[in-house]
Write a structure and sequence with these properties.
heterodimer; A: 173 residues; 4-stranded antiparallel β-sheet; 20% strand
Chain lengths: 173, 152
């Protein structure tokens, strides 16, 4: 064991100098200091934590558990983020419907609209938490493709509605 | 050799530092006909035109066959999802031409002519009183040509 450590130490000592070690330590420290400057999406995180509008949601907290979160502009149903799922995933015990209704929402802070798929999670009794009923761009029931009152569980083996997710599909051109 | 190692270490630390951030929204922009499909058809016909058995008609490797029999060209405009869509006649022609070539190129008849806005305007007002009967008749004509379509 002593021999091994000695060989290793000698090997390192022969290939490096104390100065090079200090240089690399300095680079590492500098790199760490630069981390906050790396590009990250602060706009989204700001929107994520925006203040909930009064009377807009029965949920508590902020971000995607409240009805005024920007992705929910055309939402009608219970937020899966309050029901044990996430904004993109269904809660355990439910299945994502193969069908979804598609709308567009404007991102706060950006002059851009995004295409959002509202997909129902089906197979359990309705969640009854964080009811959210926004209707931007919604059409009457006889324009089914653009109507969000419809239970979009059709195509699924389970027709019982539980909650709804909101997935970004892309940026509207 | 050593610098990339250091760079990867910094990037790893940066990744860890931002791990708690919500994922940024997708900035993918679709060309016009694809966006029309995503916003008006995708929700039911699915991303690749797979459809849903017994619920939503399949487009992939299928829809182009309808142009091989009399009445099929009109049928694709008259179906409720197209005729009753929120799209203009020009947009219907655009998205339909795109999906025919994208999802069902091999089933298109030789000399396929893309739909025009005027053609959509001509067929669109015609209401299909019994869509299943019309579809069954078209499927029977295709079957007589040796082309089998999935049941719907």
């Amino acid at each position: 064991m002593d021999g091994l450590v000695e060989r290793l130490t000698r090997s390192v000592a022969q290939r490096t100098s104390r100065r090079s070690f200090l240089v690399r330590l300095g680079q590492l420290a500098m790199g760490g200091a630069m981390l906050p400057l790396l590009p990250i999406d602060r706009v989204t995180s700001k929107a994520h934590g925006q203040t909930m509008s009064e009377g807009h949601s029965s949920g508590s907290g902020g971000g995607d558990t409240t009805c005024d979160y920007w992705r929910y502009c055309a939402f009608d149903g219970f937020l899966c983020t309050c029901c044990g799922g996430s904004i993109t995933e269904c809660p355990a015990g439910t299945v994502a419907s193969p069908t979804a209704w598609v709308g567009t929402c404007k991102h706060p802070g950006e002059a851009k609209e995004y295409i959002v798929a509202y997909r129902d999670c089906c197979g359990k009794a309705q969640c009854n938490r964080c009811m959210c009923d926004n209707n931007q761009g919604e059409m009457p029931i006889y324009r089914t493709q653009l109507n969000n009152d419809t239970v979009w569980c059709f195509g699924s083996k389970e027709m019982t509605y539980h909650c709804t997710t909101a997935v970004i599909l892309g940026e509207k051109a | 050799m050593k610098r990339p190692l250091l760079l990867s270490l910094i990037l790893t630390m940066a990744t860890l530092a931002t791990a708690g951030e919500p994922p940024p929204p997708s900035h993918q922009k679709y060309p016009a006909p694809i966006q029309l499909y995503v916003m008006n058809c995708w929700g039911c016909h699915k991303p690749g035109g797979e459809g849903i058995p017994s619920t939503v008609p399949r487009l992939k490797d299928t829809v182009g066959n309808f142009l091989r029999v009399p009445g099929g060209r009109e049928y694709l405009i008259e179906v409720p999802g197209v005729a009753g869509s929120a799209l203009s006649n020009a947009q219907v022609a655009e998205v339909l031409n795109w999906l025919l070539v994208t999802f069902s190129k091999d089933q298109l008849p030789p000399g396929f002519k893309p739909y025009t806005e005027a053609e959509v305007a001509k067929y669109r007002p015609h209401e299909l009183n019994n869509i299943q009967t019309v579809r069954d008749e078209l499927v029977a004509k295709l079957s007589a040509q040796g082309i089998a379509l999935p049941p719907q």
